[in-house]
């Protein structure tokens, strides 16, 4: 049909394609031809499932097919298949090429299939391989992409994951014709005129169930035992220079074939007969069920997890509060030293692994960073002050969403990298790109259980391994412990990255209060509203999705959190009891005035001379402190506490420390004499400069600490002689952003990009495959070449008829290209046309068009 002329401001005509599954006029000869016959939504699904094919956008479908067959892209695609689909690909790798669907069905189910789910799930697996361009061809000619076959097919260097060895034809390729004739004679077959027919006859014998059974019935018992040890792989064994009689019987009849000096192999056809036609010992057509489920009370799970969520907030606050005035130094290579991590763990009353998690969580949330000074230290960021002002539920969602999206993980801390260097908390090399996807998938699986339901970690790991088998499965060879491979145990050890990430996720979710007792909480379910849907490739959630999920989670968590209190209970033993969480101003002031002695359902604060002095250093007076305690205590201020405040206030500031090297100033000469006479002052090296002034040979902060250790209460003073007021929030880093997650491969494209990419590929393919009329003087390289007059006449005629033409075009950079355009207007030395290759209206200078040719059959 002829294309109608496009309007000036329209997006251009759309190419109509046959619906999915519609029979084609002739079978496709290549993957590119099959892709050419697919509908646009099928191509979009391919690009969505394999986004690496989209960067850069392929010029046409031939280029797309070529890129889909590259090794790196194929490995990435195979890694995202579920176990049964991968098993089907493995079966196709050992099947004849092309493989009829019936043959594949027999390889998966065997001669007498026992599991009806295999036949039910096989079409889905084949469709998944076809959708991802790993398999192509009609049902009677299924073809595995060559790169996939190379990755999965058996060889001596890379045994097949199925446990099958090379075929008879492959194993006898280098064998002498005389030896081949000896084998078929020992097997009871007539002699042939050439090795090819001899190998074909031997293969036919091994594939004939009845004749093969009759041959094995005559085998010695020891020979049958040898075959039984090799049948499920690995198919290789060793023999001596003088094999035993039962081994010689197998070698003479080709049931074992030489694989190298001193080694033999079991041919694929023999193994398939012994396996009753099955390629796998244990096909797994459906995902393992998440069972048995342990039931817990949903209310108890949510309430207990809310308590843990509040504990997580206080832990992060305690961590950053301890680093406000002097955080740990940053290692030269980045991160925390082992000693600082131990100190942090002791301060938080947690294990070192837990301390690493809390520091990484604060870093991921943008609350912690390095200050960038000469002596670089870790300190809270300005965002930490904003975070403290938020309600508790919003502070928790800030931490939880940062945890879900972060690629950094604390699990590897303390381990070794590839160069045997210890991995430090907050240091480099802690990014694990699959971490966000694994976290989301673990929580999504828990969300499929009834509320309050939980399963064992091994059950969850079994499901995850079925959905994404370990990486060794698609790089050649059968990794030890992989379920479904020959001779493998039913469960692999936790040595693959995704399994370790899943176990870390379960632990961290409990610490954060997302789960409790292994069950997902109600507010945890609300966090899963972003990050992809079931059956679609996972993608990182957008900012809007994360914000909406955080709002839902906060709304569900808020009623479960305790209401902050505005009072404490003062006791005569110089302690104060907070029967619950305190409001922010009260907690901050009390944290300066007293030391936390114990935590739990109630927090116990203890007043000491040091804590009272700390409050006085912050600018409070004794009257201020007594008034504060009177206003916020449900019990009267005890007399011992009042005396303690008065006594420390009376001595506070009596000594003044400033900077010369450093000095001590006091109106009481006797007190200065007492300091000079005290042996404990020797490390300070004091020297009297005047009756009321002592000089010391240490910095002012060391002098302050030394005098306080001696029992005095000195105060620091400025150069003007005023008392220096110190506050806990004195040190903050410059504004810092949270670390950017490191993605695993290219991102999943959005629908707009997919639509544009499919249109561009279609247009480029049409431009490269459309049949053209011969030009008067065809140019070398295939570009049309016409005179300026002929070019102008042809383009003007196309405007009148609405026809599409093929042009050669050279842009301003001198790059030549070919395009299919539908001219709309010609004036002023320019042609305005709809460009099918770019799928938009464009204007081209006529002097840059090298030539023009009409299409033979304009079917754009």
From TrEMBL:
InterPro entries: WYL_dom, XPB/Ssl2_N
All residue ranges annotated as the WYL domain in the record: 791-852
Coiled coil: none
Domain of life according to the entry: Bacteria
Helicase XPB/Ssl2 N-terminal domain mapped to chain residues: 568-690
Keywords, comma-separated and alphabetical: DNA-binding
Gene Ontology molecular function: DNA binding
Region (Disordered): 1-28, 468-495
Residue ranges with Basic and acidic residues bias: 1-17
Pfam families with a match to the protein in the record: Helicase_C_3, WYL
Bias (Low complexity): 18-28, 480-489
Protein name: DNA-binding protein
